[in-house]
């Protein structure tokens, strides 16, 4: 055991009347919601990068966090520090009771002086993490490759104008998929942090899209080659740090998948903050993924709506979260996916207990949102109103007809539209009854 969380007890459920900031008020893992344990609905995961690798910097200032495994970069510059970081991570997983975790390769291993050295470091820490998983019972929700932090990726990874960077990226992703499969990971995520452009003056859009599409085809082919049973996920993001990214939102990703024949192979991991940056709501992106048949998993965080950028804060808005989980439940719930806290402390929240309290609060907000969403779905009033609004289409043959036939029917006087209220305010009031 390390002493990083010394004096902090494991979080327990104390109920809605509790005033203990280090206890759950709403998250009771064994509570049955719609016939399933709450833990099995939510499938919480902790993000390695924000919780253990991020040093507390922002665009205007550097490191504020002092962690025993930090040396210079904050990613852990030696294998001893990487293992210490893993020890602390698994201690936190136990303290807050999350069943899953997620990583980028660069978060868990030190960068070597060569690709071969980085790979050796990676394989060593994967062995170490695998041992800790066996003893703790924790599972890997998903792994991914960091193809955006190092300067070699300044112009992208798969979309880079330098084919050597494409090759380096392909080799990195191959190793990360291997490691994810080895640890029994349930998904593999591709997040193109710099797969876009900063100016059209030096960008060949057609070429870069072809590179990105072929890269993804290679990933899918390799998944099948090694027999990886997990889902391949793309995480949409519209911009930041690039001016525009090729995986702008769920609809854009679906069009990309259709173009390259991958719509049956790849799903989406949707982040709340990215949905907002794309000009959508979280529930919009979830509903779109469900409608298109590509819903996979979620990153649960929020943005500061005054800042206008991706601030990755822990969720604290139950009504917003309830509408998101309503769409998750409408999609049938998670299968291989789950709720990953892609969220980080504010750079002034320095203490180890802040990290625990942040996750406890976020888990409570999600639990309260899930229960509200389940109550709305079981009540059935929203779905009944939706069905009633489209009832006129039941038995209609219009979509099997043609313009001339439809026009003749209208001209014969058989159709006379009468506008009906959409009842938006009534439905909004209905939702508020459950919150």
TrEMBL record:
SUPFAM superfamilies: Xylose isomerase-like. Mg(2+) 1 binds at residues 235, 271, 299, 342. Mg(2+) 2 binds at residues 271, 274, 310, 312. Keywords: Carbohydrate metabolism, Cytoplasm, Isomerase, Magnesium, Metal-binding, Xylose metabolism. Its EC number is 5.3.1.5. Binds 2 magnesium ions per subunit. The active site is at 104, 107. Homotetramer. This is Xylose isomerase.
